Amino acid sequence: MTRPAVRIDAVDKRFPGGVHALDSVSFEIGEGEFFGLLGPNGAGKSTLISIAAGLTRADRGRIEILGHDVVGDFRRARASLGVVPQELIIDPFFTVRELLGLQSGYFGLPRGNREWVDELLTTLDLVDKAGAITSTLSGGMKRRVLIAQALVHRPPVVVLDEPTAGVDVELRRLLWAFTKRLHAQGHTIVLTTHYLEEAEALCGRIAILRKGRLATLEDKRELLARHPFRFLDLELTAPLRQLPDGIVDLVDAHTDTSISLRLHKKRDSISGVLETLRHAGIDFTDLSVREPGLEDVFLELTRDGGDGRAAS
Ligand code: ADP
Ligand code: MG
Prior knowledge:
The chain is of the alpha/beta class. The chain contains 10 helices and 14 strands. Strand 1 and strand 2 form a beta hairpin. The C terminus is likely disordered.
């Protein structure tokens, strides 16, 4: 078996005030994976990343990066890992190039790293800003600098904590292309994101954290295929007066003239539903069947009251 890029073993973390941020979380990320770490706000994603980066101590359990314990073997673990933090916290007193130089020095790469830094500046479209003091930069530019900063030492494992939150479409596209390229070059990528279409487009396996626990860990395609629902969207010929029995429970959304039904793949047949509608005198001009996307799966898995597992 190849060694995992990241090994998370029974990690537990409580914060003062009683928040159980991580509840015995264990999983592994293989070398070369493009891994999605998802979960609603407050699920514990950033805490887990912070422990992996050696910035926060776990109460129990351990994390290894390429076999190096992040506490006992901090320097080697840290050298193997590049973390793009969620918060735009950046040293305000230096130019972009100075900052990247300092960061290179921190990893013992004072010279000879200039070529790589130049390449990072070019691919992240930062060349024009290389001489700018970081505090004068826009949020989007700061985000790019944080990414460059995380990558100065060419870490084999790259963790990006919501890099596209609140960034404009152009930068989002650039970041997608950039992370895809890093992955193609052999880096292991761990991406936390709120944009589920992003995880759907980029990630292979997906872990979903929910209230500090690992709710699911699965290949994206299997996760989507295992999802028990599909959707039936109908455009009606006349405004809807009343929903017939047997349909009410299936309604996902509706307006006067359109209706979206959520059908259980095993239980609710499309023909049965159409028959019920026809009996009730509800006619339609257009019909489409939609397979669930990651967003639907995510909603299902993180819904309050559920046990965090999709019904089957
Ligand atoms: P996520 O990144 O998934 O949104 P976080 O890891 O940031 O979640 O937070 C997990 C939980 O821990 C939340 O309830 C959050 O309020 C709490 N938390 C995070 N950092 C701290 C801290 N430094 N002190 C107290 N509580 C914290
Ligand atoms: Mg977070």
